[in-house]
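Box 3.1 A note on notation
Throughout this textbook, protein chains are presented in two layers. The first layer is the amino acid sequence; the second is a token string describing backbone geometry. Keep the layers aligned when reading.
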Amino acid sequence: MADKAEKRELLSSYRAKRRTDGTTEPFGGALPAASGGPLRFVIHHHAARNTHFDLRLEMEGVLRSWAVPKGPSPNVADKRFAALVEDHPLEYGDFEGKIPDGNYGAGWSIVWDRGIWHPTGDPIEGLRDGKLLFELDGQKLHGTWTLVRMKSGEKDWLFIKEYDDQASEAGTDDYPMNSVFSGLSIDDLEAGYNPAQDILKRLGKARVPLARIEQPKPMLARSGDPFDRKGWIFEIKYDGYRLLCEKNGDDVTLHSRNGNDLSATFPEITQAVARLPYESIIIDGEAVVHDLFGMPSFARM
């Protein structure tokens, strides 16, 4: 793990291209300590001068980054060119927004995918030797992937899907194009799309005023048989935590069925709710963790 001085040096190229008074991008001022936890990855969809994807892998306390013009593909036949670019601060993994005109990389950028990556062998040696083999466990990308350096130059790499049960004959366009936070795509943002208006229109007279006297209660399960009745839907009981997620402006709280504040217990959910494109919203749902067979497991909570 690089020390603080080394991290500052790794980020020098990144900072030289940006102005703190010109962009809301993070500059990595608060250098995180080594957590010993899993390594994170993120893929940004970035509508700069040329719209592209940015693959970022946590390594040595920074996000080592590659620009992938055509994006990741689950098809092993698609060898996608990936240009090694400057290292980014770890905080960049949470960045979304519009980089203002006149700044480097101006345009919308969304978190297209994020999760954990598992290198095979020493990733620093792999980077030096020109071949990184790893597994991705994200919201969109899964399975084994490879980054291979080309003979044409130090910064020229290929991003390739390996043969496994996650490989397919699909392409990049078959993945959802939305942000894993807001659910909005680059095209939605460019068009100024506001999903809240659609919801309010569908609610019509059923809209509930913002002012209320009591804290709302979550819907709880009761015994019964599944049914199929016109105008009705049902939700099965999942083995997890029932949560009421409330967003008012920049304030987000998660409440348990007993009214306890669980915002700090589930920081990923708190962060995701904070990024939803609504000024005020309440979501009633179940937080679950899946086992190896894809089934909810309370023991893994």
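The chain has six helices and twelve strands. The CA atoms of residues 48 and 106 lie 5 Å apart.
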